[in-house]
Structure formats: C-alpha cells, structure tokens
Amino acid sequence: MKSPSIASPSSSFRKTRLSSYFFGLLALIILLILLYSEDFSFLFFRRPSRFQPEPIIINPIQQQQVDVDVDVDRPISTTVKDTKKKVLPFAVGETEECDLFNGKWVKDESNRPLYEESECPYIQPQLTCQQHGRLDKDYQFWRWQPHACNLARFNATFMLEKLRGKRMMFVGDSLNRGQYVSMVCLLHRILPEHGKSMQTFESLTVFRAEEYNASIEFYWAPFLLESNSDNAVIHRVTDRIVRKGSINKHGKYWLGADILVFNTYLWWITGMKMKILRGAFDEERKDTVEMETDDAYRLAMKSLVKWVQRNVDPEKSRVFFTSMSPSHGKSIEWGGDPYGNCYNQTSPIEDPKYWGQSSQKSIMKVIGEVFSKSRVPITFLNITQLSEYRKDAHTSIYKKQWNPLTPEQLANPVSYSDCVHWCLPGLQDTWNELLYAKLFYP
Ligand SMILES: *[C@@H]1O[C@H](CO)[C@@H](O)[C@H](O)[C@H]1NC(C)=O
Ligand SMILES: *[C@@H]1O[C@H](CO)[C@@H](O)[C@H](O)[C@H]1NC(C)=O
Ligand SMILES: *[C@@H]1O[C@H](CO)[C@@H](O)[C@H](O)[C@H]1NC(C)=O
Ligand SMILES: *[C@@H]1O[C@H](CO)[C@@H](O)[C@H](O)[C@H]1NC(C)=O
C-alpha cells in the first residue's frame, strides 16, 4: 500500500529542482498549518503529554536521524525533522492516551462472543471446548474494558481491506497458534466459501483470502531459535536444546511479511537450566552449555531484535510481540482448593492485583530491556495481566484427547485438565482485539 502523501507526488522529481520544490512544499506546509493548525501542530511542537510513547510501544523510532531532504513519496510527517514519532504503517487513527492493557473484564452477553465455535471450521479439536462437552458458556461472554478508554470495535471488512495484497504472520508456539486461529475465525466469516483456504506445509500454515490476495500465516518455532522441538507435529521432547545464533534457520520463512506477531515463553520454563547448543545439531558430540532461563531467554530476545533490525522495513511493516500467556495449574494460588486447578472454574479472578506463579516477572523485565534497544519499533502486546484473571477460560478437560484416558484419570479430572491453552471463542479473541487496536490506532 502506498503511503498517503499530502504533497501531491510527481515521479519526475529531480535533484536539480530540489530547492524550488522544497520551497514549494514549505509554502504548502505553512498553508496547511494555517488552515489546520490544531491538527498539524504535533508535527512541529513536542507535546509530551500527547505523544509520549506508551509503555507498550517500547521503542518509537527515535534514534534514526530523520532525513531533511524532501522525499515526495513519503508521508509528510516523516520528512520534517525532529518529529517525536513517525506514523507507523497501518495506522489510521491517532494515539490514544490510554493503556489498553490496564482494565477489567465485564460480562457482555449482547456483544460476545465475536463468533460461534461451530461457525469456525479452523479451530483445532484441542480448543473446541463446547464440542468436547463443556456445559457452561460463561467464558465466552467477557469483554475487556480498559479503564481509561474503549477498545476499537473489531471490523473484519476493514481489516481485510488493509491486508489486501499483504501477509500477516504469527510466529511462535501453540499459544500463538491459538491467537492465529482466533484471528482467522474473526476474519473468515465475510469471505465466501470458495474464496478461502487453509493449508499446512510442515511448520507453516497459510490461510488465504483470495478476493483480497491476503494471507494470514502461522509458523511453528516455539523458541524462535532453532531447537530440537521444531517438528511441528512431534515436538514434546523433555531434554530441550536451543541453538545459539540460529534465528535465520526459521527467520528465512518470515521474510517479507507485512505484519509479524511473535511469542515465545512456555517452552523456556522447564524448572531447570536451559541447554544452549553452540555447534550444529548434526554434530556427533554436541557442544552445549547450560544457562539460567533468564539468560537463555535474553539470548533469544537479542537474536530476535537483531533479526528484526536486519530484515524488517519499519516504513512498511509492523512487528508485535505477545507477552507470556499465564497458566492456572494450582488453584491454591488464587485462594482455592489446595488440590485443584483450572478444572471446573467458571468465573474470572476478581482481585485486580492477582498474579500467579506461572508468569515470571523477570522474563517480562528481560523483554522490556532488550526491546527498548531495538531501532525498529516492536509493539508489545501486554496480555499477561489481563489473562491472569481468566482461570475460567482454559480448555481444561474439554478437548480432544490424543491418548485414551485411564480409569484413574477419568476418576480425577483435575489430573488431566489442560490449564495452559484457551477455548475458542474466548480469551484469545481479546488478544486480537488488542492487536487490532494497536495496529490501526497505535
Ligand atoms: C503490563 O500491563 C500491566 C497491567 O496494566 C502492568 O501492570 C505492567 O506494568 C505492564 N508491563 C509492561 C512491561 O508494560
Ligand atoms: C467496517 O469497515 C468497512 C470498511 O472500511 C466500513 O464500510 C463499515 O462501515 C465498517 N463497519 C462498522 C460497523 O463500522
Ligand atoms: C498478491 O500479494 C502478494 C504479496 O503477498 C504480491 O506480491 C502480489 O503481487 C499480489 N498479487 C496481485 C495480483 O495483486
Ligand atoms: C465444581 O464446582 C462447584 C462449585 O463451584 C461444586 O459445587 C462442584 O462440586 C464442583 N464439581 C466438581 C466435579 O468438582
């Protein structure tokens, strides 16, 4: 998509005419200021109260010197020196002075869920809770309400228009796959049956919206770096090994995506030190070192930032990172039954300060530190706190079981309840509403 340009562009613009063109443009800018002084004042005057970077956009592009030379194909705001913040690709609205991630859950039976489980054929059987016997539907009716503003309404037509001729890609683990599927469910309804398809090629799943020439993709890379868990189907290994400096192994499949949404967390949390491979996986004697989780995770985040800086054009593409998805494996953490977990939970946690043991604050800190040094902005989707409240939203026992359950398990559902993944429709639709808001109204 071409950026909107206020100065009407002329492709025959030549260097020799730069100065006269420049004065013409300057005159136009001054005219515009006079006409719309309120609207454009932000281009020239720092107004920290309004354009202060929110904590979630960890790094608006600031380090790069803005080119003073007038380039007619660029939006006008990027040609003016000293602007506080560039207009991000896909943005259509203004920054709202509001932390979208700080809010509460409200029951809203008239506007939720955003789609029905039975209407979306793309949901994997691990996430179709109703089909697998969940009786209550309460978890579908909660809407996230930020304290200081309202979330933009998710408009599938609008989003597909903006994705025309583009690729959006989710990269990460099964939790990110859940968010990906939620996004496909949110968008597919307006497409005719013959105009959409989903195909999987090993680690890559591609949903195509033909009429829009748009694809929404998921790439399996639970550590982002190369690991011994990279097989998209058989990846449950206990002795996890991650290879240092290997991000291009997967990164080559992410090239050219217009919107990237990364996550990685759960696979790092083994309760043990992490094994980092320094050589190659096929070497007979593997050269590994053990690292504390935080240090190993930092290594991966640094690789990600390096990859993004090398391969993402911030004038064209957007990068998001979704924070840790919490688990609810011990109800004692929220003052419940000492032997229970998310099983049989049908309402959110009400304590606004609740933070369980599954989400390590030190990891959040690592992410913040590393991303703050990125020259390409990475928009942080800070979904951890809001998901912490949702002990009711997990798939629990209501999912396809790959292995037959034993009589002991059947007698004690807590023992096989999945308190990591989330039913769809459900919580992850909210993550996408937040992604939508940050994409178009950063
Ligand atoms: C994430 O959001 C929560 C809730 O608003 C907030 O307490 C926390 O500081 C945020 N974290 C970051 C890194 O922005
Ligand atoms: C959704 O977006 C489309 C395309 O931009 C627009 O025509 C339509 O009015 C929007 N719908 C709502 C409910 O805002
Ligand atoms: C379809 O989109 C791709 C990018 O995903 C682009 O390269 C290609 O030119 C587009 N094709 C048409 C016919 O617009
Ligand atoms: C589920 O929770 C309710 C209370 O919320 C309780 O009465 C019921 O016995 C529980 N069921 C099981 C099978 O644990």
From TrEMBL:
Cited InterPro entries: TBL, TBL_C, TBL_N
CC per GO annotation: Golgi apparatus; membrane
Keywords per UniProt: Membrane, Signal-anchor, Transmembrane, Transmembrane helix
Cellular compartments annotated: Membrane
Pfam families: PC-Esterase, PMR5N
Source organism per UniProt: Thalictrum thalictroides
Family: Belongs to the PC-esterase family. TBL subfamily.
GO molecular function, one term: O-acetyltransferase activity
Membrane topology field: Single-pass membrane protein
Origin organism lineage: Eukaryota, Viridiplantae, Streptophyta, Embryophyta, Tracheophyta
Domain Trichome birefringence-like C-terminal residue range list: 151-437
Protein name (record): Trichome birefringence-like
Ranges where the Trichome birefringence-like N-terminal domain occurs: 96-150
Membrane-spanning ranges: 20-37
Recorded superkingdom: Eukaryota
First and last residue of the signal peptide: none
